[in-house]
Amino acid sequence: MMFRNFRTIRSAAFTIIVAALLGACSSMGSLDPFSGNSVNYAAGTPVDGQLNDADRQALAAAVARALDTGEAQNWRGRRAVGSVAPGGYALANLKADPAARMDAARGDLDLAHVVETDLGLYVLTRNSNIRTGPSTDAKAIEVLPSGSGVEVVGRVRDKNWMLISANGAVRGYVFGDLLIKAPGSELELAGGPMRKPILCRKISQRINIYSTRYEGEGAACNDGTGWRPAREPLPDENAPEELIEF
Hints:
This protein is α+β, with helices and mostly antiparallel strands.
């Protein structure tokens, strides 16, 4: 009887530990910035229903080549033809809705680190190197002058480095000692979930099938397992309502 009770207690403790670890992992990993498991870049377009699997596969391969090479690609399927061109970079998984994307100034940032997200406005206390990664060994890519206001979109776990956004785009990493909270924001509750940023890139595409021609824009994201169509962010419930004048 005592042995059975010990096994029950140990099992319960193990269950609690596993649940805690799974909860931690869910807050740190990528959630769902993707549109689904299938790689269909025509999904949601007016021509999707006219394409067959060979067309969709040819389109997906062209998107992957365009994003990997940075060059526009033409493709031909069984019934459709088209072209894909890569656009600007963005990062996902840094906001409450993981699909929400923030423009990024470049695509070579080190995104292998878990960061505490959504830390608010800061000010640089001196001229500061912006680097591609959270280390002085990482490439310095630009300098922001002292007094510049920046948004800290991620603080690297276990390192005193901040991933910052300025002038409308995520730019790179700054050493934490070079930043102070912006005046008036010192008492704000800061810090969102622990996440890994995910690289995304905008794409524009053209699809011709029979007499129908579609042109549109979208995005793809890559969490290290390959490019997949990006899910569109959920509507912002806190956004002000538009006023309609009659």
